[in-house]
Amino acid sequence: MRGLAAAATRPDPGAVDVTANDLYGEGRWPEVFARLRREDPVHFCPDSFYGPYWSVTRHADIAHVEALPQLFSSSWTHGGITILHNDPDIQLPMFIAMDRPEHTAMRRTVSPAFSPSALSDHSAAIRARTAGLLDGLPVGEPFDWVDRVSTELTTQMLATLFDFPWEDRRLLATWANWAGDFRAAVSPALRRKRQRVLQQMVDYFGRLWMERRDKGLAPDLLSRMIHSDAMSNLRPQEFCGNLMLLVIGGNDTTRHSMTGLVVALDQFPENRALLDADRGLVVNAVSELIRWQTPLSHMRRTATEDTEIGGKAIRKGDKVVLWYNSANRDEAVFADADRFDVTRPNARRHLAFGFGIHRCVGARLAELQLYILLEEMLNRGMTVTPLHAPMRIPSPFANGYRKQMVTVSRPQG
Predict the structure, then answer these.
(1) Number of domains making up the chain
(2) What is the DSSP annotation of 163-226?
(3) Is residue 406 within 8 Å of residue 387, measured between CB atoms?
(4) DSSP assignment letter at 84
């Protein structure tokens, strides 16, 4: 590594704050990040609602940061994994917001739930739920795909993983929505509401924790965590923090990609013919969908010592934000990167699941759910037609959708 004194000075396009909610609510973020990648790919914003921060926008630079977890910390004690300040009234540390060795032990506890053998066990049930839901959709009548399909399939999967009370499964989506709602940071009223909702989650999971702590080990993920060496002695806030991580990851990644599938096929309809002609493209289509959608826009790290990224001097304690959405549109890696292309040869190089030790533990389960949904739609010859532009989430964290009204058509006979 070159010394800090040799760090290059690049032309500065002026401070660009890429955390503005309207960039995401209006879907304008790609053009802003394209400009930063061209003009100032490691960009310092000295003043924002979230304080000063560095934006890392290129694929190679983000992979570099992710490969050095000892230098760029994820720890809750340094500020955690998002640009949002830790809320002093809701302290929910989680293993993704930990460094080694705590992170390693806790990740090993939950990893078996997402192993190839575990996914094989889930596959038939996921397909049955997906098929039943698609067969029950109204033909030719408007409905909200986000609510009727994306949220329902996602909460069903989460409830199965946790052995969560089935009748309350929609609470999981509610909690995930509020946990990732950055508008709460700028509105005292929303902040109070967010605190109440997250406290409801803590109380609910606390009751489940008490119930299952006194029972023997069961195959569900909640029981596995309670009875593990790494997690059995966690404080309630730490336990709920780890549950929240899994709920947010399972909800946001899959739900927003399921809606992104409808949006992508509508904007780039030539892909549907390719998929109909060659079902072998479905696997690659899932990777391309996750790249194109990038359901979580960023993660944050904190520098533990003076260093540099892309020739820019980074000081100890600096907030470094890794914009996965920008990395996945990096023209140096992905040709015609704004296009959704199911034949893209390097779609799996996306960074939507992160990279290195913090790569999403449930990535393969998300891919499986998306694969089955797309395959079952193709099996039915189903065409999903959006009736208007999607209503997007105005947040620099969850890159997704609140609502997408559609109609569905199927072949006659």
Answers:
(1) 1
(2) T--GGGTHHHHHHHHHHT-GGGGT-HHHHHHHHHHHHHHHHHHHHHHHHHHTS---SSHHHHHH
(3) yes
(4) S
The tokens describing 112, both together, are: 């078996």
Residue 67: both structure tokens together: 């490969």
DSSP state letter for 69: T
Tokens 């050095």 -> residue: 68
Phi, psi of 303 (to 5 degrees): -65, 130
Alpha carbons 186 and 6: distance in angstroms, whole number: 39
Angle, nearest 10°, between helix axes 270-277 and 282-293? Answer: 150
pLDDT 10s digits, 204-262: 988 888 888 888 888 888 888 888 776 767 776 777 777 777 888 788 889 999 999 99
* Structural domain of 248: 4-9+38-409
**What six digits make up the tokens of 83?**
């640009």
CATH number of the domain bearing residue 363: 1.10.630.10
Any domain includes 29: no
CA dist 28 → 31, 254, 390 (Å): 6, 22, 13
Global pTM value: 0.91
